């Protein structure tokens, strides 16, 4: 619409007002908007600062919980090794130099472990990596020893984690993990203990990049404090605020599989102090905006006199732009038509290429059949296997040629046609082959090709080798969903099955299901398709063999490959 028409439809009052009055009105509105927006942004920044502190506390609590889980997990692994090194229930506890060396090696390999202790059933120290020989010490009154002697009920199982404790030997605060030693039923043999230095944990926490003062606390589920650390740019103020009971932003998270919780707290005063520093920024912006409004207002007073000249120039630019838009629209429509034609041509070309590939594969199959007729039986078997694999890929090209999607096929339909062709061409014993694929599965050709070759190898091997005595049997192929987005292909037969061990496999050198190229190809193709292959020699205790190919979704496979 021309600008003159827009002007004629505007409010008559605005056009009758003097230009200076209109500029002053605009400046007053701009002033109010500037003050209002500055106040709004300041309040919004305050809320954002509190939310950022809350998010920071939540993320830090997750990180602390993950680190605590890994720390307890690895420490418990060392503890379990220490229990194993203590020997069976009827063995005496190790207290010699050789035993001490084995336990000392465990401590040297773990930087955060201070020592390992073994205590007998009366609480007396038998072995300690602190010193050899072991110093005299009795821990019968300690909570971890009492809990383990009582059967571990207070520890939630066999593992017990204590609060920060002062070790009687080293006078150093430690985090202790204890497990009972192997003992006969109803008896108590003693306790194995590992000591973790909190200094290592604090060094990890110091590496966290926080913008606020904060406190990090690890507690047992009963509320006992395992570790409490106050850190940050104003950690002293944070500790004082915490002691004074000032408000805090905290996040509490349970550590996975461990009776421990991690808490990260940020004082509100620390957040507000940083926010107060931002207020001067908003004040500076507001003053600069007011100055800019004054300058712009003065310039607008001068430019109001030249409004009519500018309107004429703008009208001319508007007309020119409209003409260019129409011209550009016509060019885009022509380009879109050319692109649609190119896409159609490429689809036709792709169909033709797929058709030619299928024909070429059929020619290769014919040549292989002619060549196989001139060679002896062992070599002909290799030709037959190559011919079957080429026919498998030829069937894939034929289905792609007939598919509405040039790069995807219905794998369930392909599997039914493949099995039908195999049972008619490769079935010396007359075995019965059934396919159970109740729903379609649209797969990309890059994933469908190795899966098709896997199915061909498994089914043909079952037809040729599952029934060596000539008795017909049943082979079942299933294509079923697995989980929410996965797919599972199962090839099962009720034949003689695979040999139970590698030595038996050597006595059946001709069984390609165990030693030949087929199983090697199946594993290589499964890796290419991002699938997992499992094999059962006697599934459910019955005769035969079962191969299970677990196939992830196409999207997950592409992510893994990337």
Automatic annotation (TrEMBL):
Regions that span the bilayer: 279-301
Coiled coil: 318-352
Enzyme Commission number(s) from the entry: 2.7.13.3
Keywords from the named record: Coiled coil, Kinase, Membrane, Transferase, Transmembrane, Transmembrane helix
Catalytic activity: ATP + protein L-histidine = ADP + protein N-phospho-L-histidine
Chain ranges of the Histidine kinase domain: 352-555
InterPro entries: HATPase_C_sf, HATPase_dom, His_kinase_dom, Sig_transdc_His_kin-like_C, Sig_transdc_His_kin_sub2_dim/P
Source species, domain of life: Bacteria
One Pfam family per UniProt: HisKA_2
First-level EC class: transferase
A GO molecular-function descriptor: protein histidine kinase activity
Protein name: histidine kinase
């Amino acid at each position: 619409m021309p600008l003159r028409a827009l002007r004629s439809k505007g409010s008559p009052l605005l056009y009758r007002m003097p230009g200076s009055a209109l500029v002053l009105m605009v400046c007053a509105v701009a002033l109010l908007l500037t003050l209002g927006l500055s106040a709004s942004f300041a309040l919004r920044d305050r809320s954002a600062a509190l939310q950022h502190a809350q998010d920071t506390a939540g993320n830090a609590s997750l990180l602390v919980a993950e680190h605590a889980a890994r720390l307890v997990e690895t420490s418990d692994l060392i503890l379990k090794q220490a229990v194993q090194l203590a020997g069976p229930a009827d063995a005496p506890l190790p207290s010699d130099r050789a035993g001490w060396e084995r336990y000392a090696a465990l401590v040297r390999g773990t930087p955060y472990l201070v020592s390992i202790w073994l205590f007998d059933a009366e609480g007396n120290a038998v072995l300690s990596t602190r010193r050899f020989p072991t110093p005299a010490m009795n821990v019968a009154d300690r909570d971890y020893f009492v809990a383990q002697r009582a059967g571990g009920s207070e520890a939630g199982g066999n593992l017990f984690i204590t609060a920060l404790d002062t070790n009687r030997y080293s006078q150093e605060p430690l985090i202790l993990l204890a497990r009972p030693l192997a003992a006969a039923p109803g008896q108590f043999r003693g306790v194995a203990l590992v000591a973790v230095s909190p200094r290592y944990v604090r060094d990890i926490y110091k590496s966290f990049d926080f913008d606020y003062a904060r406190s990090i606390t690890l507690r047992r589920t009963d509320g006992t404090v395992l570790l409490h650390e106050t850190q940050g740019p104003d950690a002293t103020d944070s500790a004082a605020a915490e002691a004074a009971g000032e408000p805090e932003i905290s996040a509490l998270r349970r550590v996975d599989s461990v009776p421990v919780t991690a808490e990260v707290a940020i004082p509100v005063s620390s957040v507000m102090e940083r926010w107060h520093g931002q207020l001067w920024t908003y004040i500076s912006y507001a003053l600069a905006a007011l100055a800019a409004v004054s300058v712009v207002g003065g310039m607008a007073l001068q430019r109001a006199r030249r409004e009519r000249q500018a309107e004429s120039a703008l009208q001319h630019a508007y007309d020119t732009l409209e003409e260019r838009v129409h011209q550009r629209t016509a060019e885009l429509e022509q380009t879109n038509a050319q692109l649609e034609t190119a896409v159609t041509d490429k689809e036709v070309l792709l169909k033709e290429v797929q058709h030619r590939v299928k024909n070429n594969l059929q020619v290769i199959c014919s040549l292989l059949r002619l060549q196989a007729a001139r060679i002896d039986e062992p070599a002909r078997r290799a030709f037959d296997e190559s011919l079957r694999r080429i026919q498998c890929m030829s069937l894939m090209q034929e289905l792609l040629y007939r598919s509405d999607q040039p790069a995807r096929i219905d794998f369930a339909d392909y599997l039914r046609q493949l099995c039908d062709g195999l049972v008619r061409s490769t079935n010396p014993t007359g075995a019965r082959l059934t396919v159970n694929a109740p729903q379609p599965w649209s797969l990309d050709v890059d994933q469908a090709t190795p899966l098709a070759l896997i199915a061909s190898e498994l089914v043909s091997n079952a037809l040729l080798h599952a029934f060596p005595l000539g008795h017909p049997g049943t082979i079942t192929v299933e294509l079923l969903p697995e989980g929410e987005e996965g797919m599972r292909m199962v090839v099962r037969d009720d034949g003689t099955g695979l040999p139970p061990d590698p030595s038996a496999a050597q006595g059946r050198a001709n069984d390609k299901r165990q030693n030949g190229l087929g199983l090697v190809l199946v594993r290589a193709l499964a890796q290419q398709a991002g699938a997992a292959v499992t094999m059962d020699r006697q599934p459910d205790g019955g005769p035969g063999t079962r191969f299970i190919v677990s196939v992830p979704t196409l999207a997950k496979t592409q992510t893994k490959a990337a």
